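Hi P.,

Sorry for the delay on this. The queue was packed all week, but I finally got your sequence through. Input first:
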Amino acid sequence: MASMVMVACGSNSDGDSLDLTSRFNGTWNIHEKFEKGDNGEIIYHAIPWGGLVGSMRERNLPVDWTPYESVSVEFAEPTKVGTQLLIKDRLRVFGKPGITKMTCYFDGQDVTQIDEVAIQSSDSSILKVKRVYLTPGSSVWDSTPIWEGHCVFGDWEEGFVIPGDKFLDAVAGDKLEFIYEVDRSDPKVEYWQFKTIYNGTDSTLEGNADQLNAWGCCPVGESGVLRIRLSENDVKELRKIGMFVNGYYNIVTKVNLLKKGVSQENAI
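Then the structure:
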Protein backbone atom coordinates (compact mmCIF):
# COMPACT_ATOMS: atom_id res chain seq x y z
CA MET A 1 0.00 0.00 0.00
CA ALA A 2 2.86 2.36 0.80
CA SER A 3 4.36 4.31 -2.03
CA MET A 4 7.04 6.95 -1.75
CA VAL A 5 6.11 10.06 -3.71
CA MET A 6 8.67 12.42 -2.24
CA VAL A 7 11.56 13.63 -4.36
CA ALA A 8 14.85 15.04 -3.13
CA CYS A 9 14.85 18.77 -2.56
CA GLY A 10 17.70 21.22 -2.68
CA SER A 11 19.72 22.81 0.07
CA ASN A 12 18.36 25.15 2.72
CA SER A 13 20.46 28.07 1.54
CA ASP A 14 17.55 30.51 1.60
CA GLY A 15 17.08 30.25 5.35
CA ASP A 16 18.56 29.15 8.62
CA SER A 17 20.54 25.97 7.93
CA LEU A 18 19.27 24.50 11.21
CA ASP A 19 15.63 24.85 10.17
CA LEU A 20 14.44 21.77 8.27
CA THR A 21 10.74 22.60 7.90
CA SER A 22 10.84 23.41 4.20
CA ARG A 23 12.36 20.02 3.42
CA PHE A 24 9.16 18.19 4.36
CA ASN A 25 7.50 18.12 0.97
CA GLY A 26 6.25 14.57 0.41
CA THR A 27 4.60 11.52 1.92
CA TRP A 28 5.23 7.80 2.02
CA ASN A 29 1.68 6.93 1.07
CA ILE A 30 -0.39 7.98 -1.92
CA HIS A 31 -3.51 8.17 0.29
CA GLU A 32 -2.04 10.99 2.40
CA LYS A 33 -1.91 14.70 1.65
CA PHE A 34 -0.58 17.92 3.13
CA GLU A 35 -0.77 21.64 2.52
CA LYS A 36 0.60 24.88 3.93
CA GLY A 37 -1.53 26.73 6.47
CA ASP A 38 -2.02 30.50 6.78
CA ASN A 39 0.70 30.71 9.44
CA GLY A 40 3.20 28.73 7.41
CA GLU A 41 2.73 25.46 9.24
CA ILE A 42 2.44 22.16 7.39
CA ILE A 43 -1.04 20.65 7.75
CA TYR A 44 -0.54 16.92 7.40
CA HIS A 45 -3.53 14.62 6.91
CA ALA A 46 -2.07 11.41 8.30
CA ILE A 47 -3.12 7.79 8.07
CA PRO A 48 -1.86 5.11 10.50
CA TRP A 49 1.92 4.79 10.14
CA GLY A 50 2.15 6.63 6.87
CA GLY A 51 4.69 9.42 6.87
CA LEU A 52 5.29 13.10 6.21
CA VAL A 53 8.80 12.89 4.78
CA GLY A 54 11.67 15.33 4.54
CA SER A 55 14.72 14.79 2.36
CA MET A 56 17.90 15.81 4.17
CA ARG A 57 20.19 15.18 1.20
CA GLU A 58 22.59 17.84 -0.06
CA ARG A 59 23.63 17.60 -3.72
CA ASN A 60 21.76 14.29 -3.68
CA LEU A 61 24.06 12.87 -0.98
CA PRO A 62 23.29 11.95 2.66
CA VAL A 63 24.34 14.52 5.26
CA ASP A 64 26.44 14.23 8.41
CA TRP A 65 24.63 15.32 11.58
CA THR A 66 27.53 14.53 13.93
CA PRO A 67 27.92 18.21 14.99
CA TYR A 68 24.31 18.28 16.24
CA GLU A 69 22.70 17.13 19.46
CA SER A 70 19.13 16.47 18.33
CA VAL A 71 16.32 17.09 15.88
CA SER A 72 12.98 18.44 17.11
CA VAL A 73 9.44 18.84 15.81
CA GLU A 74 7.14 21.55 17.15
CA PHE A 75 3.38 21.24 16.57
CA ALA A 76 1.07 24.24 16.23
CA GLU A 77 -1.63 22.31 18.12
CA PRO A 78 -1.42 19.42 20.62
CA THR A 79 -1.41 16.04 18.93
CA LYS A 80 -4.56 13.92 19.16
CA VAL A 81 -2.89 10.50 18.75
CA GLY A 82 0.51 8.93 19.30
CA THR A 83 3.16 10.40 17.02
CA GLN A 84 6.60 9.17 15.99
CA LEU A 85 9.73 10.88 14.68
CA LEU A 86 11.83 8.50 12.60
CA ILE A 87 15.36 9.08 11.32
CA LYS A 88 16.35 6.73 8.52
CA ASP A 89 15.11 3.58 10.29
CA ARG A 90 17.85 3.88 12.91
CA LEU A 91 16.64 6.40 15.50
CA ARG A 92 13.11 7.05 16.56
CA VAL A 93 11.16 8.62 19.39
CA PHE A 94 7.47 8.16 20.20
CA GLY A 95 5.28 10.91 21.67
CA LYS A 96 1.99 10.28 23.39
CA PRO A 97 -1.21 12.22 22.48
CA GLY A 98 -1.31 15.84 23.65
CA ILE A 99 2.30 16.84 23.04
CA THR A 100 3.39 20.04 21.27
CA LYS A 101 7.06 19.14 20.86
CA MET A 102 9.02 15.96 20.17
CA THR A 103 12.83 15.65 20.24
CA CYS A 104 15.09 12.83 19.14
CA TYR A 105 18.52 13.04 20.82
CA PHE A 106 21.47 11.50 19.01
CA ASP A 107 23.56 10.73 22.13
CA GLY A 108 26.63 9.64 20.23
CA GLN A 109 24.84 7.38 17.77
CA ASP A 110 26.05 7.17 14.18
CA VAL A 111 24.31 10.00 12.32
CA THR A 112 26.84 10.34 9.50
CA GLN A 113 24.62 9.16 6.63
CA ILE A 114 21.22 10.80 7.07
CA ASP A 115 19.05 11.02 3.99
CA GLU A 116 15.50 11.40 5.29
CA VAL A 117 13.33 12.03 8.34
CA ALA A 118 9.66 11.08 8.72
CA ILE A 119 6.86 12.21 11.01
CA GLN A 120 4.35 9.43 11.56
CA SER A 121 0.97 9.10 13.23
CA SER A 122 -0.34 5.97 14.97
CA ASP A 123 -3.87 6.65 13.71
CA SER A 124 -5.72 8.87 11.26
CA SER A 125 -5.31 12.47 12.35
CA ILE A 126 -4.39 15.98 11.29
CA LEU A 127 -0.97 17.13 12.45
CA LYS A 128 -0.05 20.80 12.25
CA VAL A 129 3.74 20.90 12.03
CA LYS A 130 5.00 24.34 13.05
CA ARG A 131 8.74 23.77 12.84
CA VAL A 132 11.39 21.07 12.44
CA TYR A 133 14.95 22.00 13.41
CA LEU A 134 18.38 20.79 14.47
CA THR A 135 20.10 21.79 17.72
CA PRO A 136 23.92 22.15 17.72
CA GLY A 137 25.75 19.93 20.16
CA SER A 138 29.09 20.04 21.96
CA SER A 139 28.56 17.11 24.32
CA VAL A 140 29.98 13.62 24.56
CA TRP A 141 28.38 10.77 26.47
CA ASP A 142 30.37 8.36 28.62
CA SER A 143 28.77 4.91 28.82
CA THR A 144 28.93 2.59 31.85
CA PRO A 145 27.22 -0.85 31.75
CA ILE A 146 24.88 -1.37 34.72
CA TRP A 147 23.18 -4.60 33.57
CA GLU A 148 24.01 -7.33 31.05
CA GLY A 149 22.13 -10.50 30.23
CA HIS A 150 19.58 -11.96 27.84
CA CYS A 151 16.04 -11.16 28.97
CA VAL A 152 13.26 -12.30 26.62
CA PHE A 153 10.15 -10.39 27.67
CA GLY A 154 7.62 -12.45 25.75
CA ASP A 155 4.03 -11.44 26.49
CA TRP A 156 4.95 -9.55 29.70
CA GLU A 157 6.25 -12.85 31.09
CA GLU A 158 9.82 -11.91 32.04
CA GLY A 159 11.65 -8.89 33.42
CA PHE A 160 14.72 -7.96 35.41
CA VAL A 161 15.75 -5.75 38.32
CA ILE A 162 18.65 -3.29 38.39
CA PRO A 163 19.50 -2.65 42.07
CA GLY A 164 19.76 0.80 43.57
CA ASP A 165 23.53 0.73 44.03
CA LYS A 166 23.94 0.83 40.25
CA PHE A 167 22.50 4.35 40.28
CA LEU A 168 24.69 5.91 42.97
CA ASP A 169 26.66 7.90 40.38
CA ALA A 170 23.58 8.99 38.42
CA VAL A 171 22.45 12.61 38.36
CA ALA A 172 19.48 14.34 36.77
CA GLY A 173 20.02 14.67 33.02
CA ASP A 174 21.91 11.39 32.71
CA LYS A 175 20.32 8.74 30.51
CA LEU A 176 19.55 5.07 30.65
CA GLU A 177 20.30 3.23 27.42
CA PHE A 178 18.59 -0.10 26.72
CA ILE A 179 20.14 -2.27 24.01
CA TYR A 180 17.50 -4.60 22.60
CA GLU A 181 16.21 -6.40 19.57
CA VAL A 182 12.61 -7.12 18.73
CA ASP A 183 11.39 -10.66 19.32
CA ARG A 184 9.85 -12.11 16.16
CA SER A 185 9.11 -15.55 17.55
CA ASP A 186 5.38 -14.89 17.21
CA PRO A 187 4.57 -13.71 13.65
CA LYS A 188 1.27 -12.23 14.83
CA VAL A 189 3.05 -9.62 16.99
CA GLU A 190 3.21 -6.29 15.20
CA TYR A 191 4.27 -3.91 17.99
CA TRP A 192 6.79 -3.88 20.85
CA GLN A 193 6.81 -2.14 24.23
CA PHE A 194 8.93 -1.39 27.29
CA LYS A 195 7.78 -0.69 30.83
CA THR A 196 10.25 0.79 33.32
CA ILE A 197 9.12 1.29 36.92
CA TYR A 198 10.63 2.00 40.32
CA ASN A 199 11.19 -1.48 41.72
CA GLY A 200 8.35 -2.75 43.89
CA THR A 201 5.94 0.00 42.80
CA ASP A 202 3.53 0.74 39.97
CA SER A 203 5.17 4.12 39.27
CA THR A 204 6.88 4.61 35.92
CA LEU A 205 10.03 6.67 35.43
CA GLU A 206 9.39 10.36 34.84
CA GLY A 207 12.14 10.84 32.25
CA ASN A 208 10.13 9.48 29.33
CA ALA A 209 6.62 10.36 30.55
CA ASP A 210 5.91 12.10 27.24
CA GLN A 211 6.46 8.79 25.42
CA LEU A 212 4.21 6.58 27.54
CA ASN A 213 0.78 5.39 26.45
CA ALA A 214 -2.29 5.16 28.68
CA TRP A 215 -0.93 1.97 30.31
CA GLY A 216 2.45 3.47 31.19
CA CYS A 217 4.25 1.62 28.39
CA CYS A 218 6.72 3.00 25.88
CA PRO A 219 6.14 1.84 22.29
CA VAL A 220 9.44 1.15 20.52
CA GLY A 221 10.54 0.35 17.02
CA GLU A 222 13.28 -1.79 15.56
CA SER A 223 16.18 0.62 16.09
CA GLY A 224 17.58 -1.50 18.91
CA VAL A 225 18.13 1.40 21.33
CA LEU A 226 15.81 3.05 23.86
CA ARG A 227 17.01 5.97 25.98
CA ILE A 228 15.40 7.61 29.00
CA ARG A 229 16.61 10.95 30.35
CA LEU A 230 16.51 10.76 34.17
CA SER A 231 14.69 13.38 36.24
CA GLU A 232 15.70 14.38 39.76
CA ASN A 233 12.93 12.21 41.20
CA ASP A 234 14.01 9.30 39.00
CA VAL A 235 17.53 9.47 40.43
CA LYS A 236 16.21 9.72 44.00
CA GLU A 237 13.88 6.72 43.66
CA LEU A 238 16.29 4.57 41.64
CA ARG A 239 19.08 5.06 44.17
CA LYS A 240 16.68 4.03 46.93
CA ILE A 241 14.84 1.03 45.45
CA GLY A 242 16.24 0.34 41.98
CA MET A 243 14.32 -0.34 38.78
CA PHE A 244 12.23 -3.16 37.34
CA VAL A 245 12.09 -3.55 33.57
CA ASN A 246 9.77 -5.67 31.48
CA GLY A 247 7.73 -5.34 28.33
CA TYR A 248 6.22 -6.96 25.28
CA TYR A 249 8.22 -9.06 22.81
CA ASN A 250 11.65 -7.49 23.15
CA ILE A 251 14.98 -9.14 23.98
CA VAL A 252 17.25 -6.95 26.15
CA THR A 253 20.97 -7.66 26.34
CA LYS A 254 22.45 -4.59 27.99
CA VAL A 255 21.61 -1.44 29.95
CA ASN A 256 24.07 1.46 30.11
CA LEU A 257 24.18 4.63 32.20
CA LEU A 258 25.11 7.53 29.93
CA LYS A 259 26.76 10.53 31.58
CA LYS A 260 27.05 13.81 29.74
CA GLY A 261 30.38 15.56 29.34
CA VAL A 262 31.68 18.42 27.21
CA SER A 263 33.79 17.76 24.15
CA GLN A 264 37.36 18.95 24.67
CA GLU A 265 37.43 20.74 21.34
CA ASN A 266 34.45 22.85 22.50
CA ALA A 267 35.55 23.34 26.09
CA ILE A 268 36.68 26.80 27.17
